[in-house]
Amino acid sequence: IQEKTKPEIKNLKYTRKVIESCKNLIAGAIGENLVVNEINKLSNDFTLINDFNLKFDTPIFYKKNNERIRSVQIDHLLISKAGIFILETKNWSKSSVNSINLRSPVSQVLRSSFALFVYISENITLRNHHWGEKKIPIKNIIVMINHKPLTNFKFVNIKLLTELNDYINYFEPVFTDSELKKLVSKLTRANNV
Question: Is the dihedral of CA 124, 89, 105, 139 positive or negative?
Answer without folding.
Answer: positive
